[in-house]
Every structure is written in structure tokens, then in C-alpha cells.
């Protein structure tokens, strides 16, 4: 793994920033975004990418760059080619990337564990426009570092930002704690908090970060008490964290008492408060009472959003009352809310566990009609169910949709797809999907490649095998590929277990 603490002796004089120049201010079209995205994903070398960008004659604006990088992030595209695009856009004198572009680029690099490239970007950004490096940037980087590195390394990385961020204070400290809460254990976050709380004076956000991570009611109550002892008054977020931990601990009476305490302090429960109650009632086996909360919150002038409906829908799916779940989704639409990827994911998860491919596929067709794209986890539920039923046509249709519309993770889905195609001897289809993936700049796993290789050898197709081998070799040495395969497997397990 690349080292990622290179600025212990770094001393770069800050440069004053001139006003941002927005080149060619015009609204980017979907066609422009798609054109640039295709250039990033299909060109094989930095030189070809720069040539293609110049030849496209598309005038880059901050808004256009933001949208292209967002597209790259959610399609799991090649991080190094995306970085070439990012650097190319940053070359013109007087141009400054937005904070969104910077953070998106760092997230993409962090996901592929290119930590050395992250620091190169940060050093360059400090020279050109340090104001873009914010506590949000710290959060983005630390979140990816903490996912694969130790607590000690994560804290070292945090201190590396001291020379990067203009105001290295409690907001950055909160970003560190949030990363540890999300990617490590709460005991790790608590230890770091106690070690550094005298260096960075905790504020309400500090306690809210820690409160949001506790799964133990006793731990949450302890931090709530410490907050009050330090004279930090809880706000609606603090109370919501306590309500949530009680609900997840199935302590519904305590949760309702906190809600009453909120009202006694003239703090109105918000949609997050009610969503926690809905989830908690589902955990104690009361989905009907949870549905009633949707009506009750309206009476208090708080209108349910998609997340509140999703929580209620999840309750009925867990109870295997799919009809009631569908009824709530229809109710969402009647109230002007569109079912989102999370809504559909709840159903697809349920259909996966009850082995209902027909309902899953019907729901997927509904998603396509409404323009809602599958999340990576939903793709995995669907492709694994398809694999179980050996439906090649469905698998190919899902894959073609992913290629055409750029959703889901090609790397994760392809392993299951190639497994199905190779098991059934569908060499032509496997070869086509392999080339589609490579053309997108994505590396099929060594396992998938070896399976296709065996089929080609059996089918006596040496020329095709030679081409495939050359394509794989373009991604790096065998040692690198093995390491990347390991990372992909870990990511696959993590993504499929999420939610």
C-alpha cells in the first residue's frame, strides 16, 4: 500500500487567490457530460485522453466538470483517467476547481486506494487555491483512509492536514471522529476523543458525531450526560441521536420520553425523529403502528419524506407483508414523492431472500420506466438472483443497461455474470461482456479472466485468447492484479453487506 503521510516536512508558502474565472459560462448539456465521460472511460493512455479532450472542442466550465466527475464517481470508473481529466481541466491560468470537484476526485482516488495521488492533488491544490481544502475534504480523505488503514495511521493522516487546511480546528477534529465512528469502532473514536479533547475544544457537533455512532444506550446516555456537564446544550440533532439509539435498542418507551422532553424544551421533533420511531417500531414488530406515525407526524405539521416512507416500507418487507409495502409506495407517489434507489433496494433485498426472481425483474422494469438507477447493492441482489435461476437473457439485459447508463459497479457485478456465463458455456456472450468492461477502463478480476481463458482454450480460439491476455496485461503486472483482486473482493463483501 502506498504511504500517505508525505507532508511532515512540507512547507509551501500560501498563494493568494485571484477571483475564480468560470470559463465559458453556459449550462452543460447531458450530451456534453456523456461525451466527456466516454472519453475518460474509453481512452487507454493519458496522451490519448488529452488529445480526445482537445479534439472534442467542449469548453470546460466548473458546472460541467462537477457533473462529469459525479458521473465518474457513481459509475466506479477508472480513477487515474479521471485524475488526468481533473488535471487537464486545472491547467488554464486563472481557472479554479470547485470544492465539489476536488472532494469528488479525492473520493474516487481513495476508493481505489491511490493515496499517493491524493496527496499530489492536495499539494497542487494548496499551491493554487487552498480555500478549496476544507473540513469536508478532510472528511472525504479520512473516510477512505480509515476504511483500510489502522487507527494510528488514520490519526497520522489527520495531523498531515495541519499544513493543508487554513483553519485546522474543531471542525477537522470532528471529521476525524466521524471517520472513526463510521469505519472503525466507537471505542476507537472514544479513545481518540479523550486523547485530543483538550487540544480541540469540543462543540455541539463533536458530541453529535459521537452520539450518532453509539449503538449502546448506556454509552449514548453517558456522552449525553458529559455534554451537559460541559455546558453544551443539546439541539434537535443531539436528541435525535438519543432517540435513534433507543429505537435501535428497542427501548421504545425511553425513545418516546425523549420526544416528550424535546417538546418540553420547545424543540420540535423533525422528520428524522419520526423516521427513527418508525424504524424502532418495525424492530419491535409493530409495522402498523409505524405506519400510523406517518399520519401522526402530519398532524404536528411535519411531513414525511422518502426516508420516512422507506423505513415504513422496510418494516412491512421484514414482516413479509409485501402487499402493504407496495401500498405505501403507491401512497408515496400520491403524496408527490418519487420512490428512490433505497426504496427499490428494500424490495429487491426482500425478493432476494425469498428467491422471487419474477417480482425482482418486474420491479426492475418499473425502475427503468421511471428513470431510477439501481444502486450497486441492488445490482448485486438482482444479478445473484439471476445467477441462481440461470437466466442468461436477464443477466445480459442488466449488464447492457449498466454499460449504457453507467450505474452500479462493473467490477462487482461482472464476477457473478462471468460465473454464470462460463458455467453455461456462453463463451461468445462472456467475451463480448469482457470487452465492454475493458473498453470502459474497468479490469475484470483474475478469477473471471482465468475462467474465460479455459473456455477459449477448450474452444480452440488462440487469437481471441491472445487479445484478451493483452487487454488484461494493459492493467498492470500480475502482482498488482492479484492485490487489486483482493481489494475488489473485500469491497464486494462490504458493499453487499451494507444496509
UniProtKB/TrEMBL annotation:
<dbReference type="Pfam" id="PF13041">
    <property type="entry name" value="PPR_2"/>
</dbReference>
<protein>
    <recommendedName>
        <fullName>Pentatricopeptide repeat-containing protein</fullName>
    </recommendedName>
</protein>
<keyword id="KW-0677">Repeat</keyword>
<dbReference type="InterPro" id="IPR051240">
    <property type="entry name" value="Mito_RNA-Proc/Resp"/>
</dbReference>
<feature type="repeat" description="PPR">
    <location>
        <begin position="340"/>
        <end position="374"/>
    </location>
</feature>
<feature type="repeat" description="PPR">
    <location>
        <begin position="235"/>
        <end position="269"/>
    </location>
</feature>
<comment type="similarity">
    <text>Belongs to the PPR family. P subfamily.</text>
</comment>
<dbReference type="InterPro" id="IPR002885">
    <property type="entry name" value="PPR_rpt"/>
</dbReference>
<dbReference type="InterPro" id="IPR011990">
    <property type="entry name" value="TPR-like_helical_dom_sf"/>
</dbReference>
<feature type="repeat" description="PPR">
    <location>
        <begin position="270"/>
        <end position="304"/>
    </location>
</feature>
<dbReference type="GO" id="GO:0003729">
    <property type="term" value="F:mRNA binding"/>
</dbReference>
<dbReference type="Pfam" id="PF01535">
    <property type="entry name" value="PPR"/>
</dbReference>
<feature type="repeat" description="PPR">
    <location>
        <begin position="305"/>
        <end position="339"/>
    </location>
</feature>
Amino acid at each position: 500500500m502506498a504511504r500517505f503521510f508525505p507532508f511532515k516536512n512540507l512547507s509551501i508558502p500560501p498563494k493568494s487567490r485571484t477571483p475564480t474565472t468560470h470559463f465559458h459560462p453556459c449550462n452543460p448539456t447531458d450530451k456534453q457530460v456523456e461525451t466527456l465521460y466516454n472519453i475518460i472511460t474509453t481512452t487507454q493512455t493519458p496522451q490519448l485522453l488529452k488529445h480526445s479532450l482537445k479534439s472534442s472542442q467542449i469548453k470546460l466550465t466548473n458546472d460541467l466538470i462537477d457533473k462529469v466527475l459525479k458521473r465518474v464517481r457513481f459509475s466506479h470508473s477508472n480513477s487515474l483517467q479521471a485524475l488526468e481529466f481533473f488535471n487537464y481541466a486545472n491547467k488554464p491560468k486563472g481557472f479554479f476547481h470547485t470544492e465539489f470537484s476536488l472532494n469528488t476526485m479525492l473520493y474516487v482516488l481513495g476508493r481505489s486506494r491511490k493515496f499517493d495521488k491524493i496527496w499530489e492533488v492536495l499539494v497542487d491544490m494548496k499551491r493554487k487555491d487552498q480555500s478549496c481544502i476544507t473540513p469536508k475534504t478532510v472528511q472525504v480523505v479520512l473516510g477512505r483512509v480509515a476504511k483500510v488503514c489502522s487507527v494510528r495511521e488514520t490519526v497520522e493522516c489527520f495531523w498531515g492536514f495541519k499544513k493543508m487546511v487554513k483553519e485546522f480546528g474543531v471542525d477537522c477534529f470532528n471529521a476525524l471522529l466521524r471517520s472513526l465512528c463510521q469505519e472503525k469502532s466507537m471505542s476507537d473514536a472514544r479513545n481518540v476523543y479523550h486523547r485530543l479533547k483538550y487540544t480541540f475544544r469540543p462543540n455541539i457537533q463533536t458530541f453529535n458525531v459521537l452520539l450518532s455512532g453509539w449503538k449502546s444506550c448506556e454509552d449514548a446516555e453517558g456522552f449525553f450526560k458529559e455534554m451537559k456537564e460541559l455546558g453544551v446544550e443539546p439541539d434537535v440533532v443531539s436528541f435525535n441521536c438519543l432517540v435513534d439509539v433507543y429505537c435501535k435498542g428497542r427501548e421504545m418507551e425511553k425513545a418516546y420520553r425523549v420526544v416528550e422532553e424535546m417538546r418540553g424544551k420547545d424543540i420540535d421533533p423533525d422528520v428524522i425523529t419520526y423516521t427513527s420511531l418508525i424504524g424502532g417500531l418495525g424492530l419491535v414488530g409493530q409495522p402498523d403502528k409505524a405506519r400510523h406515525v406517518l399520519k401522526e407526524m402530519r398532524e404536528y405539521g411535519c411531513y414525511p419524506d422518502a426516508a420516512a416512507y422507506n423505513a415504513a416500507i422496510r418494516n412491512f418487507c421484514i414482516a413479509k407483508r409485501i402487499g402493504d409495502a407496495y401500498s405505501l409506495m403507491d401512497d408515496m407517489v400520491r403524496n408527490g414523492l418519487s420512490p428512490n434507489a433505497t426504496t427499490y433496494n428494500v424490495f429487491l433485498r426482500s425478493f432476494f431472500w425469498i428467491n422471487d426472481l419474477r417480482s425482482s425483474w418486474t420491479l426492475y422494469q418499473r425502475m427503468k420506466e421511471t428513470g431510477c438507477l439501481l444502486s450497486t447493492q441492488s445490482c448485486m441482489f438482482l444479478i445473484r438472483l439471476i445467477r441462481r435461476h440461470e437466466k442468461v437473457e436477464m443477466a445480459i439485459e442488466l449488464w447492457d443497461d449498466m454499460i449504457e447508463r453507467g450505474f452500479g459497479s462493473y467490477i462487482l457485478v461482472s464476477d457473478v455474470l462471468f460465473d454464470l456465463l462460463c458455467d453455461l458455456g456462453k463463451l461468445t456472450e462472456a467475451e463480448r461482456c469482457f470487452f465492454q468492461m475493458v473498453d470502459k477502463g474497468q479490469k475484470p478480476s483474475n478469477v473471471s479472466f482465468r475462467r474465460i481463458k479455459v473456455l477459449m482454450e477448450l474452444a480452440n480460439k488462440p487469437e481471441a485468447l491472445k487479445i484478451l491476455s493483452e487487454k488484461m496485461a494493459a492493467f498492470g503486472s500480475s502482482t498488482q492484479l492479484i492485490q487489486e483482486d483482493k481489494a475488489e473482493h473485500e469491497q464486494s463483501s462490504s458493499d453487499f453487506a451494507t444496509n
